[in-house]
Amino acid sequence: MPSATPPAADLLAWYDRHRRILPWRAAPDEARDPYRIWLSEVMLQQTTVAAVGPRYARFLARFPTVQALAAADWAEVAEEWAGLGYYARARNLHACARAVAAAGGFPCNIPGLAALPGIGPYTAAAVGAIAFDAPVVPVDGNVERVMSRLHAVEDPLPGAKPRLTALAAAFMEDPAARARPGDFAQALMDLGATICTPRSPACALCPWQGACTARRSGIAAELPRKSPKPARPLRHGAHFLLRDGTGRVLLRRRPARGLLGGMLEVPGTPWRDARWEDAEALPHAPVAAPWRRLPGVARHGFTHFELEMVLFAATLPAAAAAPEGEWQEAGAARASVPSVMRRLLDLAAAA
Ligand code: SF4
């Protein structure tokens, strides 16, 4: 028999007492700023609340409003995003800020938000609910977990997503949730992050413990079940760390479109399934030089594949023509490249 949706009022009462204080969260008597909410949601898609905190504050200090972000050069945005991963998201963030600034502000409904660059259904729902009290329940991994447990959904993810989304949406039929959609969304997020946690849910502290089917059956910690992930393929690259006479390193900007679009990189070959033999890699070097292959490899995990890179190093010969790219001091180079490239700099430092 399907379990009933528990009262939203119980969760809201819990939230009113235990809500987390977060840098992007307005106090109950404060106006909600869609820019801050949107920025935090984009950042939180790739990393944890603890890791986002300082980066969020720094980003906001540099770009305090959506207009300031829209007016910034891409290079400034990329620099501030360095190390946060998923650069396509930073590009979309910038494009979205420009669209919002041009329109005079954020749209306050879900279709308007969803039409902005880089805003998917989850972010549109989160910003819509939290900033504008749109009557929706944004469903992320936390909310899927809570729903799977409340209703003891044993079908594995990702197949169970539509069912879990429908179970979450059913809360909007409860007048208490409908009266406070933004608080309800944040309450669910907080419950998932602090009580209904992945490994050992603190059910004794949960406002919904009496209604929770998985708790009653003793299977809460086992849910949600997940279909086994296919193994990520391994790809290979060879890169070239060129220094000039003063120790600066040569970086190159990647094409605007595609993986790490527009970011700086240590020049290299394309990434492919087969390993690069030295003789086939060297023609990709930015300049003819006495290249020396460094011992070891650098590895980096992308969402869809694992990358293994070898690194060649050389000093620019005095007679060589200046290759295309940007020369940067070692420290500045480290700060301005994405994490995958930092692994190459670490490999060079360890050699
Ligand atoms: Fe999660 Fe336990 Fe609450 Fe159920 S009772 S929703 S498993 S914390």
Structural notes for this entry:
The chain is of the alpha+beta class. Helix content is 43%, strand content 10%. The protein has 16 helices and 7 strands. Strands 1, 4, 5 and 6 form a 4-stranded mixed sheet that branches. The chain has a 3-stranded antiparallel sheet with strand order 3-2-7. Helix 9 packs across helix 12. The protein is elongated. The protein binds iron/sulfur cluster. Iron/sulfur cluster (SF4) binds next to helix 9 and helix 13.
Global geometry: elongated
Instruction: Report mean pLDDT, rounded to a whole number.
Output: 94
Strand content: 5-15%
Order of helices and strands: HHHHHHHHHHHHHEEEHEEEEHH
Ligands, ions, cofactors: iron/sulfur cluster
Number of strands: 7
Q: pLDDT below 50 for ≥5 consecutive residues: which ranges?
A: none
Structural class given helices, strands, pairing? Answer: alpha+beta
Total number of helices: 16
Helix content: 40-55%
- How large, in whole angstroms, is the Cα Rg? 24 Å
Distance between the termini: 63 Å
